[in-house]
From TrEMBL:
InterPro entries: D-amino_acid_oxidase_CS, DAO, FAD-dep_OxRdtase. This is D-amino-acid oxidase. It comes from Paractinoplanes toevensis. Residues 7-307 form the FAD dependent oxidoreductase domain. Its EC number is 1.4.3.3. GO terms for biological process: D-amino acid catabolic process. Pfam families: DAO (PF01266). Belongs to the DAMOX/DASOX family. The lineage of its organism: Bacteria, Bacillati, Actinomycetota, Actinomycetes, Micromonosporales. GO terms for cellular component: cytoplasm. Keywords: FAD, Flavoprotein, Oxidoreductase. It catalyses: a D-alpha-amino acid + O2 + H2O = a 2-oxocarboxylate + H2O2 + NH4(+). It comes from the Bacteria.
Length: 317
């Protein structure tokens, strides 16, 4: 196959773009990724990345998340850990169905929960060190024959010369394809030197907003989080950071004295429903895969499988 010929062009080098490109390249397709930012500079690199299939809407979220859980479990090591922990809510609720069959699942007793929380459950979840994991995915894509063009910010799909385009542009789809339903939600977290936490804690909320989570990644502990609709810049806000540390300190007091290592800010691509579908546009086939809100990592492998199926169907004619 000529090196300058591409069967598929993938737009975006975040977790959705890389995972999708990898699945396509593993089919023997000539795949090229075009992205404004290299993987380590994308919003995906700033994610806390605890597997948790909430904050995204689509009838297939459950199936996509289950497929992704299985793949992360298979990939354990080299940036992926399986960690026990607690998810809890401040209001009475019923444990969601997706949690019931997970390894380590059990309901929490009231005494197991921090002050202010009234319901919770334990389970084992993949936790992904995103900068490390994205570098791993990029390496795997290259090993499978995929190529990259970073620093290219597309104004429209009319600039693309490929028979099939896979649009993993995240919040950028608002301008790239004129999708008024997708909008940015800025999220912030604080990385501190881990004072000894070995299990995760995640607050369960009905919608993205101010929340509390503590995600151990070895010597580093990630504290979160926030959600600021309509905000797309990636400058950390000191007041938000202080509020995050205070909330997490209420759950695990040792973090109040922990050394702050860095502040991370990313932009979630929020949409009323994940867009994963094929359309014919500007004389070419386009397969969309964006709008995952806060569940891009958790659904990444399942969504990539569905994109792969659509692309192979198109190529088969």
């Amino acid at each position: 196959m000529a090196p300058d010929r591409h069967d598929v062009l993938v737009i975006g080098a975040g977790v959705s773009g890389l995972t999708t490109a990898l699945q396509l390249a593993r089919q023997g397709l000539a795949v090229r990724i075009v992205a404004a930012d290299a993987p380590g500079q994308t919003s995906s690199a700033a994610a806390g990345a605890l597997w948790d299939p909430i904050y995204a809407n689509h009838p297939r979220v459950g199936a996509w998340a289950a497929r992704s859980y299985d793949e992360f479990a298979r990939m354990a090591g080299d940036g992926v850990r399986l960690v026990d922990g607690v998810e809890a809510a401040r209001e009475p609720m019923t444990t969601p169905d997706w949690a019931l069959g997970l390894p380590g699942y059990r309901e929490c007793e009231p005494a197991d929960l921090p002050a202010g929380f009234v319901h919770g459950w334990r389970y084992r979840a993949p936790i992904i060190d995103m900068p490390h994991y994205l570098a791993r995915l990029e390496r795997l894509v290259r090993e499978a024959g995929g190529t990259f063009a970073f620093g290219e910010r597309l104004g429209s799909l009319a600039e693309v010369d490929a028979p099939i385009v896979v649009n993993c542009s995240g919040a950028g789809a608002h301008d790239l394809v004129g999708d008024a339903e997708v909008h940015p939600i800025r999220g912030q977290l604080v990385a501190v030197r881990n004072p000894g936490l070995t299990e995760f804690f995640a607050e369960h909320t009905a919608e993205l907003g101010e929340m509390t989570y503590l995600i151990p990644q070895g010597a580093v502990l990630l504290l979160g989080g926030s959600a600021e609709p309509g905000m797309a810049d990636r400058l950390p806000d000191p007041e938000i950071a202080a509020a995050i540390v205070k909330r997490c300190g209420d759950v695990f007091p040792a973090v109040l004295a922990a050394e702050v290592l860095e502040h991370r800010v990313g932009v979630r691509p929020s949409r009323p429903m994940i867009r994963l579908e094929h359309e014919e546009r500007d004389g070419r086939h386009v397969v969309h895969n964006y709008g995952h809100s806060g569940a891009g990592v958790s659904t990444s492998w399942g969504c990539a499988d569905d994109v792969k199926a659509l692309v192979l169907e198109l190529l088969a004619g």
